[in-house]
Structure formats: structure tokens, C-alpha cells
Amino acid sequence: MSDHSSDNKRRREASPPPSSNQKRRLASDCCSDALSSASPSVAIDEKHEDFERLTTDRKNMLHYMLKTESRYVRTKNTVTMHATLDFPLRQAAINYAFQIHRRLQLMPDVLFLGVNLFDRFLASKTCHPHELPLVMAASIWIAAHFLQHEDTEHTNEDINFYCHRDAIVPLLPGCTKRHLLDMKREILLALDYRLHCPTVLDFIAVLGEARDQDEDAEALTMFIIQITLYNYDFISIRPSAIALASFYLAERICGNIKACALFLTDEAKEVVNVLEHFMEHHFVYAGECLPGYLVDKFSHPDYRRVAVLARHYYKRRCREFNRCISIVPLPRWAVRSSKALGMEERVAKPEPQEVGGGHERT
What we know:
Cyclin A, domain 1, Cyclin, single chain, cyclin, mainly alpha, cell division, 362 residues
């Protein structure tokens, strides 16, 4: 017995240590098994009767997305423990992504994939705060090239023009096209060229095929899921749960009673509660303490009608229940952080006096 143990010990000492590629492959294999077993209940029930309308290929695609989505979900600690990135800085960077996306009129998918690439890159790399616009611009550029194949050259010229003439040049006077290309290459190498991942919009597309939405509900769903990009509470939530909760909430606000029987799971119900609290707080006090980024979205022509619809819904709901909302405000824009990024955005007004012992998250 002792001889056998000594032989094993000598064999282990003689064998070379595993290379970095072997370690990465081993970690990937272990991660795959853990992910498939750690989430026994998915956010969307594939066997629900509403999914009978889907084709076999679409069901297989949904099954694959549900199986792989957790690999790309960040944790709140990713941002909390980051050396240079705090939540106000992340909000400002995402607002910068909205500016690029709106200015260039890119596909909606580009925005969500670009933000996902931005978060995944910063989970493993440390950047100076002044480089965050460059990282975000490169992430949006990669997402646009990946998703808009037929318009690659046009996207290249537009993003290059926008980065030089508007936002990046005042922050980085020496910024050239080479800087953008270098950052793009650095992101691709850091992510090992694994670009696509199931986003909220992918699941919204499946839900839209399973249940028909009217124009207002569809616009309100898009409004809600874009708001979730700012709130750090949603960083660690799977895209399928965010999609399902946003879909359900939009249907309910628009008066679709049948939506109450939608295929909500426990995880999606928790997301609905977070969204409900967020929408109640900010829409009831919209004229007083609405954050600057929501003021912009509230007044955007594409969402003005549904934003007003949501605000009236929550005001009426509060009057019916005859209660005062316990205000737990989200992190506000920091003047220092916004100026550090060169964002000329409105800073949220001070929150009103808190009721019910609410506290501000930091």
C-alpha cells in the first residue's frame, strides 16, 4: 500500500504542471456541468401550452438559449469589486451606448449585445475611467459588425466618425482610428472571440411568437427592458427572466387580463417585483426625481406614449391602494463621474424625503 502511494507521489512530481490552455479547458468543462445542474428550474417553461405555436426548430433554439444563458450572466460583485468601475460610471457608459445607438440608428440587438460585451470585458480587465467610452464604442462596433453583416462598411464609417467628432476626442485628444481598432482587438482577444450570447431581445422574440402583443404592449416591453440595462439589480439576473417579467408587466399595464395567466415562474415573479418597485417609485415621482437617463427616454418620441401610459397606471394603482410608496432610490448620477466621462447629461434632482425607513443604496 505504501509502495503504491509513493509511486503515485513520484508520478505526480515528475509530471509537468498543466498549461494555461489545459486549465482553461478544464475550467470550461467544469463550468458547463455546474451551469446545467445549478439551475434546475428555468425562467421560461418550455412545455407551457402557449409554446405549442412554435415550430420544432424554434423550440430547439429556445432550449439551447435557456441552457447557455447563465454562462454570460455577470454578478453584482463584478462591478462592486472592479478597481475603476462603479455603478454611476457604468450608468454613464451605458448612456453613452444609447447615444451611439440612437445616433447611428442601429438594430436593437446591437445595443444589448454591445453592453454585454462591455460588461464581460471589464469583468476580466481593468481600464482607466477615461477609457470607458472607448471600450463602449468598440463594444458597440463589434456588436454592429457581428449582427449587421450586410452594412459593415457603413457601420465602420459611422462609428469612426461619431467617435472622432463628438465624444471620444475631447477625452482622448490623441485618439485615432488605430486606438479604436486596438481596443476592438483587445476585447476580442479577452473574450476569446465568443461574441454571441442569448440576450433579452432573443427571448422577447420567442415570447412574441408564443403570444401576440399589440403595438403599445410591444413598445412598452422594449421601454422596460432598456431601462433594466441601467439598474444594477438586473446584472445578475438571467435574460430569460428579465424578458418574461418585462413581457408580463407590459401586458398587464396595457390591460391584457389574460396576461395574468402567463407562464411566470418563481424567478420571473421576483424580477416582476423588482420592476414593479422601480416603476412605481420613478413614474409616480417622475416630475420630481426621475433620473436624467429616464428623462431622456421618457421624452423620446418612440416611448413617450407608453411612458405616459405606465405613469398613469402606477399613479392610479397607488391611489386605489391608498398608500405611500416606500422610496428606495437607485444610485444617482454622480457629478464627478459624469464629468469624468465627458457626458453632458442631466444630473438627477435630489430625492424627496424618504418614507417608511427606505435607504439609499451605494
